[in-house]
Amino acid sequence: MIFGRSERGKPPVEPVTLKILVAGGFGVGKTTLVGAVSEIRPLRTEELLTEAGRPVDDLSGVETKNTTTVAMDFGRITLREDLVLYLFGTPGQERFWFMWDELAEGALGAVVLADTRRLEDCFAAVDYFERRSIPFLVGVNCFEGAARYPADDIRRALDLDPDVPLLTGDARDRESVKTILIGVVQHAMAQAAQRRQTVTT
Amino acid sequence: MSADGEGRSPWFDDEAGPVVRPYAMTRGRTSSAAQHRLDLIAVVVTEPGADDPESDPTLSPEHVDIVERCREAPQTVAELAAELDLPIGVVRVLVGDLVDLESVHVNRPVPPAELPDESILRDVINGLRAL
């Protein structure tokens, strides 16, 4: 690009990058949440996998494929010229957990999106982040027409530790998503502070 | 995976997969020495002194593309994969080649164990509030 070259004297800003994961069951609104705050249309990255030993998959029409694609949607929020936050929607299927490991490494924290009509869909994600001590909160995506339940009931149903925040919101709404993301970072800060304390005492 | 989408072509279609198998671009390699720990949000930066990549006959068009894109503005591995429409694994190998050639360098994201840098987290919160 001619523009880029003419500016060779001035090195481009090399931003610090951070990521927050968005997990939850299929169709719970992960990509919607990412899209609500991302400055770019959510992008899709893909990885190819060979399907060895994985005959069962609910992908009617493509049964004969022996490779499969794991797709992850992600968005970007430039907080400052030198500070960029990425939001990654985790692949929904549990069998792609090895991808989660890669995604989770270095993540600031995570949102587990829950739909009260299918709470069981997010058990796996809650379990995953708990075991790895990754700071996360549960965001209950309030779908129209879904019954509202008291937060305590949802906490109990998910068997959440008392310090895990639970927020309700609307994955389509920018302000709502901002609140959820701020909640994740605050929780990550609190968890870090707590951990530091245990180390020093 | 993209194809022309028009379905006119008599001899290939979406179902057959991409015309060029993705890992052909890496000459079949699925890993490179440098790729290890190349996070999705690792930032690829073209070295200011990098030669014009197009003059290097050993580089593939995809290599050249990466060098050019990251010269303008540094990009993450995930963004490169999305924009070049290549699997992440392929991008990692290609970036690894470019690191070896010293055409680009890679900035790793903040390692998780050191993350509790409160000032960064506070900056993130403030940045989100200001959105």
Question: In brief, what are we looking at here?
Answer:
With about 200 residues, chain A is an alpha/beta fold. Chain A has helices at about 1-5, 30-35, 95-105, 125-130, 150-160, 175-200, and strands at about 15-25, 45-50, 65-80, 85-90, 110-115, 135-140, 165-170.
Sum up the structure in keywords.
heterodimer, A: 201 residues, alpha/beta, Rossmann fold, 7-stranded mixed sheet, 6 helices, B: 34% helix, globular
Description:
- The complex is a heterodimer of chains A (201) and B (131).
- Chain A has 201 residues and is an alpha/beta fold.
- Chain A has a single domain (2-200), classed as P-loop containing nucleotide triphosphate hydrolases (Rossmann fold, 3-Layer(aba) Sandwich), CATH 3.40.50.300.
- Chain A has helices spanning 2-6, 30-37, 97-104, 123-131, 151-158, 174-200; strands at 16-24, 43-50, 67-80, 83-89, 109-114, 136-141, 166-169.
- In chain A, strands 2-3-4-1-5-6-7 form a 7-stranded mixed sheet, sandwiched between helices.
- In chain A, strand 5, helix 4 and strand 6 (136-141) form a beta-alpha-beta unit.
- In chain A, helix 2 packs across helix 6.
- Chain A is globular, with a radius of gyration of 19 Å.
- Chain B has helices spanning 61-72, 77-84, 88-100, 118-129, and strands at 43-46, 75-76, 104-107.
- Chain B contains 4 helices and 3 strands.
- With 131 residues, chain B is mainly alpha-helical.
- Chain B has a domain at 26-111.
- Chain B has a 3-stranded antiparallel sheet with strand order 2-1-3.
- Chain B is globular and about 45 Å long.
- Mean pLDDT of chain B is 81; it is low at 1-7.
- At the A-B interface, helix 1, strand 1, strand 2, strand 3 and strand 4 of A face helix 1, helix 2 and helix 4 of B.
